[in-house]
Amino acid sequence: MTLSARQLFDRLVHVETLLWGRCDEELQHQTGLTLGRLEVLRVIASVDPCRVNEISTRLLITVGAASKLVDRLEASGLCQRQPNPRTGAPPCSPSPTLATPP
């Protein structure tokens, strides 16, 4: 059976969605984190200083969505915002008690 490019793309997206969902379930079961939150933590851990705009750019999400994710992570104690002394802008950093994610 030969698939058109559109059919192949549709199947690929479907498989990716299933895989993401399964990995997300397992990660939540083992750690309580979602894949989305883990991705944000990975960006925070890799960029110093990390600002919400950097998270937005790297994860291809809106600044508002990135800010809400950081708010939730901060409320959970997984990261903290500290104002930049020069600009007052709050960069994000991993919580001191959080091990760097893989």
Could you walk me through the main structural features you see in this protein, from its secondary elements to its overall organization?
The protein is mainly α. It has four helices and two strands; from the N terminus they run ααααββ. A two-stranded antiparallel sheet has the order 1-2. α2 crosses α3 (52-59), α2 (35-46) packs across α4 (63-75) and α3 (52-59) crosses α4 (63-75). The chain is elongated.
Question: Keywords, please?
Answer:
single chain; mainly alpha; two-stranded antiparallel ribbon
Summarize the structure.
By secondary structure, the protein is mostly helical.
Topology:
Layout: H1 5-31, H2 35-46, H3 52-59, H4 63-75, E1 79-81, E2 92-94
Antiparallel strand pairs: 1-2
Q: What is the CA-CA span between the terminal residues? A: 40 Å
Would you tell me the overall average pLDDT?
86
Query: Number of helix segments?
Result: 4
User: How large, in whole angstroms, is the Cα Rg?
Assistant: 17 Å
Q: What is the 3D shape?
A: elongated
The succession of helices and strands, N to C, reads HHHHEE
- Taken as a percent bin, the fraction of beta residues is 5-15%
* Helix/strand class: mainly alpha
Stretches with pLDDT under 50, minimum 5 residues: 96-102
- Name the strands of the widest sheet in spatial order: 1-2
The total strand number stands at 2
Helix content: 55-70%
- Main β-sheet description: 2 strands, antiparallel
